[in-house]
Amino acid sequence: MFVKHLFDKATHKQHEHIPDDNVSSKKSTEINVQIAVHYGIPYTASTMAFDPIQRLLAIGTLDGRIKIIGGDNIEGLLISPKKVPFKHLEFLQNQGFLVAITNENEIQVWNLEFRQLFSSSQWETNLTAFAVVPGTCFIFIGDENGLFSVLKYDMEDGTVKTMPYHIPSDSLAEKTGISSVDPQSIVGILPQPNTFGTRVLIAYQRGLLVLWDISENCAIAIRGNVQTKQNNFPASELEEASEDERQEEEMEICSLCWASGTGSVVAVGYTTGDIYLWNLSPNKGFSHKGKEAEGTSNNALKLQLASGDRRLPVIVLHWSPNSRGEGNRGGHLFIYGGDEMGSEEVLTVLSIEFPTGFESMRLISRVDLCLNGSFADMILLPDSVAPEKTPSSALFVLTNPGQLNIYDCIHFSTQKAETEESYANAEKFPVLVPTVDPNITITKLCTLSTKVLKKFHATKVGRPPLLGGTKWTLTGGVPSEMSLSKERLIERMYIAGYKDGSVRIWDSTFPILELMFVLNGKLAGMGIGGENTSVSALVFCPITLTVAVGDECGLVRVYKLHENVDDEGHMLQNGKGIQCNAAAMVSNSPVRTLSFTKVGQFLSVGFENGQVAVLQVSNLSAIFCTELSPETSSPVISLLEITTQGDLSPIESPKSPKVQKELLISLTKDAHLSVLDASTGVPISALALCEKSDVTAVSLYALDLHAKEAKDTSKDHKSSENNTEAMKAQNSNLDEMSSTDDLAADQLLLICCGDVLLLHSLSYILMGLDKHLKKIELPEHCCWSALYRNVEKNSIDLLLVYQTGSVEIRSAPDFKIVGQSSLMSILRWSFKTNMDKTMSSSDGQISLVNGSELAIISILAAENSFRIPESSPCLHDKVLAAAVEAARSASSNQKKRQEQIPGILGGIVKGLKGGRGDNSPKFTDTLQLEALLSTFPFAEQSVDALDEEEFNIDDIIIDDVEIDEPMGCGPSSMQNVGKQTKSDNEREKLFEGSSEVSKPRMRTQQEILTKYKFGGGTCFLVILSFLTFFIVILHKRFFLNFRMLLLLQPMQKTSSCNGKRSLIG
């Protein structure tokens, strides 16, 4: 039922309409766009979070997006309803939820399984600190007024609830004895390791640090506002710092982190550029009023990265222990900030050791990591589920714009100071689809209509290890079973050309892309120049499985993929890869467009200088190549092959036989249309579509309405009538055509220009008549377009992308607006220069590239050609989550059984061990923690204060109290009566029934034995027996062992003389 509830909730939220401020209210219909594929890191990335159990990385952006990255090419994109930056981001570890806080103090909880925003709540004040208790759904937050609050995400209700537990700043000041000052904002919250959220360090803006115990409702340690002796080591030696100097400094905290695995040392960065390491171990002389005993040890050590007076604030601090199980012996402190203003932007790594304790701290080495861009955020990825106990395996550094660099942390542990340069090199984050390195220049999204190509059975190779040999750390997510099927057909491919001349081909049937081929630009043994030149044009023939590539030098290459496919449709594997089958250079002008004709037998080529050539695909021999002409010197942007019936003469005789003719129509950038004989290259007609000299043509399409009607005849009679009526309604707006039959019988050419849409008849063009059937002025400048068939609506639609990023859909051939949106509302992208060159479409699917990002969106979301969500990878591994929870439960139960001791014996052992450790968890269960957080910590204190103010026990005369009503018998009354009776019985036993209490006196050994031994005091003997047993096991650890044995010897003799059996035996 719980899973069904979540699914219903996700389905409901998915169909909710989310308003967007970026979409104009004037738009008629919002386009139902589905983001099927998204790869790459957004250029607005600003913050990161990591789930050490699920091994997922989350990256928040400044425009309200969250990027999720896992293993096996699994990536996902979450888009917030508002375009607002995220300032805090953290996983509910192993729960499948991600908590995000925006700059507008909106608390969002995302469900990773359904990729939906499940909860959103607005906080009234400005949130300045945020932390999630590991392994729970509890969230600690701090605000600008110094209020510490606790939230809980209820997974069943899908809501964030405010817990009663909270700590106001004035209550904290009264509890700890700190002088009350103006409210200070909380700038940091750190749950102490190994305490299961029962202890938390709260950092206030003006330097106050309070280690608070939630179970005891008291402060364990207070730092930052007390006089302490500091040490300052700017290099490698320790030096004492002046106390007067510290008192004069304005110590405002801006970053902090734990600097030990036990939570006994915290590193704090200040706005002055200083870093203090504070010892949080409770001193023996500490009282809950916040005062330290005199003569205590040093509590703080001071670090300075630079000696100048003007230093940058220490913005980021992170800690990684040296190795497993070493506790406080040392580690690496990662620092951003603290250097002199104007210095080079670096990330500093300090290697610190604690040989014999906090006071023996020493600096081993310092390394400055140069950044590739301005710093945005950093995160350490631990190699286990306990970050505070194990060293980090990798360091991820995020810089602007959207660059992620990786450092192998094994270098920081193995290298010494004299070889600092060896581990200062960063690795670029590996990407599935490169867009920047190398630079992508052209793309092609292709649909395989024949579906003869089966899944590429390449040997699956995981991510390569880091430079230091560390295994790849991001392994989260679960691919869909549909994508893992070995016998599935490849339905879609994504092809990209690069500046280095290479071409890469991916299987894009499902949301997880799989790399199939890498075609390099080398031409071994062909003797043709132009190798490794930037790719400028691409085309793919789905029938013959042939790829044609054109570059900036005019070189054309052909790769025949079908020669590498066996009879069953599987790709053949060989060490050489796919080799170039043919290459030719007909012109020295760059290739601008390519088109296959006659079912892939011929290849049409359009050049930068306006030339057009037709090549035979088998050997790339030239069939013809047009001559250079001043009138056609503009780049060819589109080539179209059309088969027509009848003679090509301007005046056709009605009795002339209908003979099929192949026409090749070319459109240049300056809107000149040319018609050639596809077999000979003989010019048939030429036409200038626009009189304006600054007009820019975008694309050319052929509308075959006759073929559309023929396709509809296969349906039932009623559907055919409806389609005919719809077609007549569309064609009624074409004033230049006499009837629907005339329109359907002719070929229509749709020319899209920057400012206008034109509809021409092929017959008129062949006659040389500049007479358009329809002309529509566009409201904005169009940069890219795509024509596709909407099967659901049985229509042909034209998609237009304007220079402002607006997206518009118009029906053809009447050009009515049927939908509007924008790249900003869909992907949070702005249209950039040359973005149109990396856009491509196929059957309503559109691929786009923006910086490091690649997206494939589906305009026909209702058709769901990607079969989402069945084919989508799951961002939360429920099997792994259940296994981890089961392991934790078994470990917890085993630990409880090992530590389970009878009440009397447990008290003895606790006394022998000296009580509980500094931060040993008293609660290890979520229900116990929730019980602690379900009460207000200062409620009892308030009641006590009220009682002391209004009542005095000495003024109350019991005899004067009149009781008019019988005593209540509720649970509270019964509990008090029981306590009183038990207290009276214990008093009577203690004083042997006497009401008078005499002055205490020293009793002799014989009196004690007579009272407790002969008088039947067996409880005393039982305690002594267990105590003796444990003292022997502990190897005579305490000197009381010897005295106890001496005491028990006469007791044994006395017991033997009276004929009684010894209990010690």
UniProtKB/TrEMBL annotation:
Gene Ontology CC entries for this record: cytoplasm; plasma membrane
Keyword Transferase: no
Example GO biological process: Golgi to plasma membrane transport
Chain intervals with Polar residues compositional bias: 721-733
Region feature Disordered, mapped onto this chain: 712-733, 970-997
Bilayer-spanning residue ranges: 1014-1034
Keywords: Exocytosis, Membrane, Transmembrane, Transmembrane helix
Domain of life: Eukaryota
InterPro entries: WD40/YVTN_repeat-like_dom_sf, WD40_repeat_dom_sf, WD40_rpt
GO MF term list: GTPase activator activity; myosin II binding; syntaxin binding
Keyword Ligase: no
Basic and acidic residues bias spans: 981-991
Stated family: Belongs to the WD repeat L(2)GL family.
Name by which UniProt lists this protein: Lethal giant larvae (Lgl)-like C-terminal domain-containing protein
Species whose genome carries this gene: Rhynchospora pubera
